[in-house]
Write a structure and sequence with these properties.
Order of helices and strands: EHEHHHHHHHHEHEEHEHHEHHH
Helix content: 40-55%
Largest sheet: 4 strands, mixed
Shape: globular
Structural class: alpha+beta
Number of strands: 7
Strand order of the largest sheet: 1-7-4-2
C-alpha cells in the first residue's frame, strides 16, 4: 500500500477532493470510495474495543452486577465453560477464546448501558436489546451469559469446518477462507448510535466525503502533528477477502442518527475478527485484513499531511461550509464557533494595531 505524504494544505485538499478523477473508475459517475480521518497517522485502522485494553477494567464491574451468588468469579466461569466446550484444544486457544468472550461481555455492557441511559433521559434509541432472541425482561449481558455455551459451540463448529477445508487446500488458498465470527449483533443501529457518540465498539466510522474526513482528523491537531485520511474502495468489501470478511453498515435509520447523516457517515465491521484473534493471538486492524490480499494495492490508500497551522485548515474547510456547526449543528456549537471567530478577529486587530504603533515608533526614533 502506497502512502502519499504532503506538506502543502492546498495540494492535500485538492488531491482528496471529489472533483479529482482518481475517485471514479472506468467513467463511473458514482464514487465508490469511503474515507476516514485520523489525527494520529501511525494509528492502525482498528476498532476502539480491541485497540484499547483500558476497557478491560469494566469486566470486574460486570461480574458484580451479573453473577449469581453461587458463581464467585466470571473469569473462572468462562474458563470452565471453554474447558467443557473445547476440552481437547491447546491451552493457548482456550486462553484466546476466554479473551474473546471477555471482550464480548465488555462491548455488550457498554452499548447496553448507553442505550438504556439515553432512553431514560428522553433521547430516541432504536432498540433496548441487542439480540433477536433476547426477552425484554432480561438484559443483553444476561442473555449473553445465559447463552455463552451456544455461542462457543457454534464458533467452534464453524471454525472446525474452516480447518477441514485447510486439509484439501494449499496455504495460499486457505488464506482466502474467511475467519469465523463469534458473535454478531442483530441490531447494528444500536452499535452505530453508540459508536457515533464515543462508545468503543467493533465498528469503524467512515464518511463518503473526503474533506469531512480531513476536518475530523484536524479537529484536535496541533502544530507539527501528522494527520492522515484513509480511503477504502467499497467494491472491495463485496469481493473475497483473504483475511476475513468486512461488512458495510450504510442503511441506517435517520431518526436518532441525524449527525451521522449530516456527516454522510457509515461504518465498517470486520466479521471475522474474533476468528483471526483465535488463530493468531492479536486483534486485527482493517489495514492488516486488506493488506494481506493480492488486490490490496488498488483498494486501500493513505494520505498524510504534516500540520503547520491547524487554524489554516479549519479556515479553508469553513469556506466550503465544512465546520463543526455544519457537521454537528447545535446551539452550543454555533455559540462556540461565533466566539472562536470573534477571538480570531480580535487577535488580528491587535496584531494590526501593534504593527501600526511599531512603525510610528520606528519613524520617531
Amino acid at each position: 500500500m502506497d502512502v502519499e505524504k504532503y506538506h502543502n494544505i492546498e495540494e492535500f485538499l485538492n488531491r482528496l477532493s471529489l472533483f479529482n478523477n482518481q475517485w471514479y473508475e472506468n467513467g463511473d459517475r458514482q464514487c465508490h470510495w469511503i474515507f476516514r480521518g485520523q489525527k494520529d497517522s501511525t494509528a492502525p485502522l482498528q476498532p476502539a474495543i480491541t485497540r484499547n485494553n483500558r476497557y478491560n477494567e469494566i469486566f470486574d464491574f460486570i461480574q458484580e452486577k451479573l453473577l449469581p451468588k453461587n458463581v464467585p468469579d466470571l473469569k473462572a466461569a468462562i474458563i470452565n465453560t471453554v474447558q467443557s466446550s473445547i476440552g481437547n484444544s491447546d491451552n493457548i486457544y482456550k486462553e484466546r477464546l476466554s479473551e474473546i468472550i471477555k471482550k464480548a461481555f465488555i462491548e455488550i455492557d457498554l452499548i447496553e448501558n448507553f442505550v438504556i441511559q439515553a432512553n431514560e433521559l428522553g433521547f430516541y434509541v432504536p432498540t433496548l436489546k441487542l439480540f433477536h432472541e433476547q426477552y425484554s425482561e432480561i438484559s443483553s449481558v444476561e442473555f449473553f451469559y445465559n447463552n455463552v455455551i451456544k455461542f462457543i459451540n457454534k464458533f467452534a463448529w464453524l471454525d472446525g469446518r474452516r480447518n477441514v477445508l485447510y486439509e484439501s487446500m494449499t496455504p495460499s488458498l486457505y488464506n482466502q477462507i474467511p475467519y469465523k465470527k463469534f458473535i454478531e449483533f442483530d441490531y447494528p443501529e444500536a452499535n452505530a448510535l453508540a459508536q457515533h457518540h464515543g462508545i468503543p465498539t467493533r465498528f469503524l466510522d467512515w464518511t463518503k466525503n473526503p474533506l469531512y474526513a480531513v476536518f475530523f482528523a484536524n479537529e484536535e491537531s496541533v502544530k507539527n502533528d501528522t494527520i492522515c485520511v484513509w480511503a477504502l474502495n467499497t467494491r472491495y468489501i463485496s469481493s473475497c477477502l483473504s483475511m476475513g470478511q468486512i461488512k458495510l453498515h450504510k442503511k441506517l435509520p435517520h431518526k436518532g442518527l441525524e449527525f451521522l447523516h449530516y456527516q454522510q457517515g457509515l461504518f465498517t465491521e470486520m466479521i471475522g475478527s474474533e476468528g483471526y484473534y483465535y488463530h493468531h493471538g492479536d486483534w486485527p486492524s482493517l489495514d492488516k485484513y486488506i493488506n494481506a490480499s493480492d488486490k490490496s494495492e488498488n483498494f486501500l490508500k493513505k494520505f498524510e499531511l504534516i500540520i503547520h497551522d491547524p487554524d489554516e485548515i479549519l479556515s479553508k474547510l469553513n469556506n466550503m461550509n465544512i465546520s463543526k456547526i455544519h457537521l454537528m449543528p447545535t446551539y452550543d456549537n454555533i455559540a462556540i464557533e461565533v466566539i472562536r471567530k470573534s477571538n480570531m478577529v480580535a487577535n488580528e486587530d491587535s496584531k494590526k494595531k501593534g504593527n501600526f504603533l511599531k512603525r510610528i515608533f520606528n519613524k520617531l526614533t
